[in-house]
Amino acid sequence: MGKRRAGRELLRSLSKKQKKHLREFGEEHPFYDKVAWERGSITVQVDVRSEDSDKSSAESDSETEVEQVSGYHKLLATLKTSPESESEEEEDESESEEAEESEAEMDIEGSQEPGEAEEGEEDENDVPEEEADTAEQMLSQEQADGTDTSCDPRHGVIEEFTDVKHESEFSLETNFMEEESGDCSADKRDSNPFKQHMDKELEDKEVEKMSTLPKTSSQSQWPRLGQLIFSSTLEKHKTLKADKEVDVKQLHLHKPLESTWPKVNKQFLSSVDKPSDSPFTPLQREIFCIMNTYRDLFYPERNALTNGEEIRHAYCLHALNHVLKANAQVLSNNAKRRDRKPGTDTDDYRDQGLTRPKVLMIVPFRECALRIVHIFISLLEVNDRKKIDVSNKKRFKGEFGSDPEEKPPNLKRPEDYEAIFAGNIDDHFRIGVAILQKSMRLYAPFYSSDIIIASPLGVRTVIGAEGEKKRDFDFLSSIEILIIDQADIYLMQNWEHVLHLMKHINLLPLDSHGVDFSRVRMLNLNNWSRYYRQTLLFSALQDPQINSVFNKHCFNYVGQVAVRNVPLTGSISHVVVQLPHVFRRLEAESVTSVIDARFQFFIDKVLPEYRDAIMSHTLIYVPSYFDYVRLRNYFKKEDLNFTHICEYTKKAAVCRARRFFLKGEKQFLLFTERFHFYKRYTIKGIRNLIFYELPTYSHFYSEICNMLKATDNGVDATWTCTVLYSKYDAQKLAAVVGIDRTAQMLQSKKNVHLFVTGEN
C-alpha cells in the first residue's frame, strides 16, 4: 500500500503535458524543464555524470551520491502500479530571477537537495525494453479514456483518435445545398475572387514560362504595410492599390461571414486611433486586400505583443471564406447532378481536387490551434441563439487547452516571451477540421477534412521519410491555401520539418482515395496544383531561410507580394549600459564558405585576445547549435577553462555552469541562442561579450548586452562587446545597427567601433 501511495505522489509531481511529452519523446520539453522531482516524501536521487568541461577537482570530491533509478524509470514503474489518472499540478519553477546580488541568486538556485539538483543530469532516453512495453500499454489505455496519443518515435506512428461517427453527416458527396444557407448567386458573379482564381485555365506555354523564366518585380508604397515588392512571371498585372475604405459587401464574403466578421473583429477596432465604420483595422484592411486577390504574401513584421491576433483573425476569415465557398459550390453541383437529365455533359461539375483538404495551417503550438478554432466557431455563429454544432468540442478543449494553475507563479520573463509561450505550448499535434453549412467537425480524418491545423513536427511525423513503411502525404496533394504563421519560431524548433513539408505538398497522390474523377478540376489532373496554391507566410523577422521558402517553393500564377521595410535605428538603441561595441568583419567567398571562414577567423584573430586571465567572465553567444558543438569540441581539445549551456543541457548542469561562471571558476561560457529563446535566464557575471554571429532575433542583442548591468561591481570600464559579421549578414546587421550604419559597414572593410552611452 505504501508503494502504491508513493507512486501516486510521484505521478502528481508531473503535469499532464509533461507526462505526455515524456511518453512520446523520452525527454522534457525545454519550456517545462525542471530542477526538482520532489513531492511529499519522495526524493529521486541519481548519480551525476557531469559534462567534461564542467569537471573540477573540487566537484569530483564532493559528488559521491549513490546511483538510483532515474525519474523516467520511476514514472514508468508508477504506470505499472497505478494506471488511473490523478489530478496534476505544475511544480513551481525553482529558480528566482529577482534583481538581487549575484551571490544571493546562486544560493537560491543551489538550495535544493543534492538529489533534486542532479536529477536533471540523468539521460531519460535510456528506457529498458520491458518498461517501454508497459508504457505502450498505458498509451492504449489512456487513448480509450480520451487522452491524445500522437506518435512515438520508437514505435512509429500510432493510430490516433479520429471522428468516425459523423462521417456521413459531413460527407460532401452525399449532402446538398440548403436553400437558406446558399451563396450561389454570389458564386456566379464574375468579380468573385474565388471563382476568378480557381476557374482560370492555364496554358502549357504559361506553365513552362513559370517553370523556367525569372520573375519580374515592381515596388509600391502602402500607408500601413510600407514598401511592397510585387513579383510575377506571367504578364505584368495592374499595380494593386490599397483601399482606403472597405465595404464588407464588396469583399464577396460568404453569407454568414458578412454579418459575423464585424462582431468578431470588434475587439481590435476599439484600439484604432481614428474610429470608422470599416470592420477592419488599417493593417487588416491592407493584408486582406492582398489575400483576397489570391496572391502569395510574406509579412515579416508579425509581433506577438501588438499585431499577432489581428493577423490571425484576418487569415482565419480568408481561409474560412475559401472553404465555405468551395463547399457551397460542391453542394450546389450535387443538387444539379441529381436533377440533371441523362446524357448531360458532366464536365460542368468539375469543382474538387484529388483529395478534400483545401487549407493547411501551420502553427507552432497547440494554443495557436485552439485560438484558430475558436475564431472559426465565432465566425460561423450568427448570434447567441443560433449556435453551430461542433463535434468533439469537449475533447478538443481538454487536449489543446491549458490549466492556468500550471504556470509557475514566480516566473518573470519579458512580455514578448509571455505572449509567445502562453497557454498549451506542446509542439507536436495535428487535427483535421470539416465544415459543412452550419456544423463543424473536429478530429475529422484528414481525407474528410477541409482544413488541417498542425505543427511542423505533427506533419513531419505523418509524412515520414523515404524508406519508411508507414507514411502518407497524399492529403497534401490538393492544398489550395497554405498558411505558415510565426515562421520565425520554427527556426528555433527544427526548420528541416518546414522544408520537408514544402517538398511534399501538391504532389500527385499515390492512391485515388475514392475520388470521383469526373468532379476533379483539370488543374489537379494536370498536376498544376502548385501554380494555384496561395501561400501566406507570417514571421517576426526577415531571415534567409524564410526568404528561400517564399522564393523557391511558391509558384502562384497570380504573383507574390513581399513586405520589405528596412529598420532605421536597430536594437542597439535599446542597450542601456555604457558599452563599447566592436564589429569585426570577416571575409568569405560564398554563403557556403562563411561557416568555416567564421570559425577560422574566431580561433585565429578573436580567441587569442581573450585567452589571458585578465579577460575572464567572457560569454560567447552562438546562434547555431552546430557552431556551438564545433566550438565546444575545439575548447575541449585546447583544454581551455570553459563551461557551456545549450538547449539540451539539464537544469542541474545549467545551475552549475552559471555558478562557475559567476564566481570566475570558468573563464568562458558558451551560450546558445535557442537556450535563451526558451529560457530567457539572466546570466550574471559577464564582463566580456562575444557574438560569434549576429542574433536571429535583433532584440536578443540588446537583451544580452543589458545582462551586464545585472552585476554592478564597479568594473564598467572593463566591459567589452565584440561582434563577428560578414557581408552575408546584411539583414541581421541592419536589424541591430540600422540601415544607414549597415551601408557604411558593408562598404568599409575596417572594424567598426561604436560606443553606446545608455541614453540611446
UniProtKB/TrEMBL annotation:
Residues 1-170, 175-194 are annotated as: Disordered. It is found in: Nucleus, Nucleolus. Pfam families: Utp25_C, UTP25_NTPase-like. Residues 571-755 form the UTP25 C-terminal domain. Its main location: nucleus. GO terms for cellular component: small-subunit processome. Residues 23-37, 48-58, 151-169, 185-194 have a biased composition (Basic and acidic residues). The keyword Nucleus applies. Signal peptide: none annotated. Residues 294-561 form the UTP25 NTP hydrolase-like domain. GO terms for biological process: maturation of SSU-rRNA from tricistronic rRNA transcript (SSU-rRNA, 5.8S rRNA, LSU-rRNA). Keywords: Developmental protein, Nucleus, Phosphoprotein. Residues 137-150 have a biased composition (Polar residues). GO terms for molecular function: rRNA binding; U3 snoRNA binding. Residues 85-134 have a biased composition (Acidic residues). Belongs to the UTP25 family. Component of the ribosomal small subunit processome for the biogenesis of ribosomes, functions in pre-ribosomal RNA (pre-rRNA) processing. Essential for embryonic development in part through the regulation of p53 pathway. Controls the expansion growth of digestive organs and liver. Also involved in the sympathetic neuronal development. Mediates, with CAPN3, the proteasome-independent degradation of p53/TP53. Interacts with CAPN3; the interaction is required for CAPN3 translocation to the nucleolus. This is U3 small nucleolar RNA-associated protein 25 homolog. It comes from Ptilonorhynchus violaceus (Satin bowerbird). The gene is Diexf.
